[in-house]
Structures are given as C-alpha cells and as structure tokens.
Amino acid sequence: MLPINRQAKVVHNCQSGNVPDDIHTYEEPVILKGLVDHWELVKIGLESDSKTAEYLKSFYNGKPTLTYFGEPGLDGRYGYNETATDLNFKKEKAQLDQVIDLIITHLNDETPPSLYIASNVIDLNFPGLRKNNDLDMSFATRNPNSEPPIPSIWIGNKSIARCHYDASDNIACVVKGRRRFIMFPPDQIENLYPGPLSPTPGGQAITMVDLHNPDYQQFPKFKQAAEKGMIAELEPGDGIFIPSMWWHQVEGLNNFNILVNYWWSNAERFMGSAMNVLHHAMLSLRDKPAHEKAAWKHVFDYYIFNNESLPTQHLPVASQGLLSPMDELKSRQLRAMLINKLNR
C-alpha cells in the first residue's frame, strides 16, 4: 500500500492551452486541471483505442526509434534486474506503427508484454501532430538565449517509470489513460536510495525502493521521504507542472496510455550539464581525504552556492575573469581549458 497521503495542489481555473502566468513562481508540483482537454488527440482518445492508434499512425514518418520491450509479467515495472547490474527490459529500435499495433493487439491480455515508446521527440517521428495538439510555451522563453522547449510523446501500455529526477522544469500533459505521479522534493535524495548511475532506464538514477510496497528493513529512511511526498492523479486533458530536480514516479494506469511533455530551462544554452560536474567531482574530489573534502566544501560554497556576487565584490572589474557572470566566450574558454587538462 502506498504510504503517502498528501495530495498535490490543483489549479482549477486553467484556460485550455494556457499555462498560468505565474508558473515560474511555483516551488512544488501543481496539477493544471483541463490544460489540454481541447486537443484533438485527447478527444479521440476518449472515443476509442483503435481510433487513437490510427490517428497517431497517420502522422508517423516511418523512422525507427528506441522502444522498451518487457516480457509478459513485467507489468510495465521498468527498472533493474535483481542484482541492479542490468535493466529488466530490452531497448531496441523499432517501427513505431508496429509497436502501436502491438499495444492494441494485447489490450485485453491478462499478462501482455510491456511496450513503451519513451521520450520520443514529436517532430522527429510524428511531424504534423502538433498542429492540433500543442501547448503555448511562449512563457518558457523569457530568456531569448535559452533552449526552446521540445515536446516529446510517451506511448505504451501499463507502465511505471520508477522515481527519478530531471534537470529541467517540466509540464506533462495526460493525453490518453489515467496517470499517477508520486513526487518528492530534491532534499529527499538520501531517503529515496538511488540506484546505480549506470545502467539507468532513461539517463538518471532511479530509486531502489518499491514505493507501493516499501521494505523498511532494507530502506528505513524511506519513511522520512514518505512524509514529504505527494500524489497527483490525472485524467486525460490534465497537465502537471514538476519543478526541476523534484523526484517523480510516473505510472500509466490503463492498457493504453499517452503523455506529452515539455522540458525547459531558462539557463543560457551555452551552460553545460550539471551532471558533468557530478562526474568530474567523482573523479577529482570524492575519494580525497576527509579533511580535504571538508575544505573543498567551503570553497564550493564560496564560489558556487552562496551569493554569486560574493567572490567578486572586493575585486576590480578588470580582474574578475571567470568569476564574473558566464557568457558564451568564457564558456568556450573554460571548456577548452577543461578538455586540455583532462587529456593530460
């Protein structure tokens, strides 16, 4: 039984297709009720499974893409094998129209194979689909130098995308089938017992805890995470905003589920991935003696995590160099310096 009772806040006055203007001020997930209930795909999805499949396939351009395949009995619980040394499903390139047909073929099976088209960039495989099925994301381009949101589609039968985090802000739109989101704030990472950094189903580590049947003997601190967790139950046409770095488990509850999501960040596009910093810190810092790591923690607080103007407020502007705000030129110089140092 799921040991979480707190429900996510619901914004009921959403106008179809319009994200609330103050979405960037929300510090925790919120349900955006009826956000995409005007989409053609949502309406067709409420009519018929077969019509939904045919509608999707009418936009498919024939390019194969990576798909998850799980044996019957997996029940869409994508994750690790028993030793966490490999995944419990296969990733293979496939024709998406054939995968959609398989979902329809096995709709009424008691133990169907698990099928999942994950994070498929819509314009790469379903050109034209966005014409009547898209969200106005102009609010997310407040910084003209940031990467624009790129909508992706997720198609499958019953599925559980185990609890993980994403580095970007996210709006996920439930198109077909019901979805359950189970979410935790970023500071609960220790209490969620992340698995290996590799392999992973989608790039980020996933929790080792079965959220519906937690083993408190093996994962005792999950009780603290459960106290901070929240649940969101979404119907077709609903959306949800999930802030960057919030842990979330996404569950497709029906035999045919479709979701469209938009990731975005207002960071400058020349910024590197923070995951690269983590990997570099593992290489250069994690296994240092304890007293050295303690000292470096102060250094990182001073240069990175405290007031960004602190390291420069006593320096002449001409001398600030890399300490001044990052721009594209400095980012190129810094990348070149790092590559040169790492190649030695």
Offer a concise description of the structure.
This protein has helices spanning about 40-45, 50-55, 95-105, 120-125, 220-230, 275-285, 290-305, 330-340, and strands spanning about 10, 30, 65-70, 75-80, 90-95, 115-120, 150-155, 160-165, 170-175, 180-185, 230-235, 240, 245-250, 255-265. It is of the alpha+beta class and about 350 residues long. It comes from Alteromonas gilva.
How would you characterize the overall build of this protein?
The structure is a single chain. It is built from eight helices and 14 strands. It has 344 residues and is α+β, with helices and mostly antiparallel strands. The strands form two sheets. A nine-stranded mixed sheet has the order 1-2-12-9-14-7-6-3-5. A five-stranded mixed sheet has the order 4-8-13-10-11, covered by helices on one side. α1 runs antiparallel to α2 (49-57) and α2 (49-57) packs antiparallel against α3. The protein is globular. The chain starts with 8 loop residues before the first strand and ends with a helix. This is Cupin-like domain-containing protein.
The topology string of helices and strands comes to: EEHHEEEHEHEEEEHEEEEHHH
CATH evolutionary superfamily of the largest domain: Jelly Rolls
Rg from C-alpha positions? 22 Å
Under the CATH scheme, which class of the largest domain? Mainly Beta
Q: In which order are the strands of the major sheet placed?
A: 1-2-12-9-14-7-6-3-5
- Low-confidence region ranges: none
Nearest-integer average pLDDT: 94
User: How much strand?
Assistant: 15-25%
Number of helices: 8
Number of spatially distinct domains: 2
Classify the helix fraction into a percent range: 10-25%
> Remind me, CATH topology of the largest domain?
Jelly Rolls
Q: What shape does the CA trace take?
A: globular
Main sheet specs? 9 strands, mixed
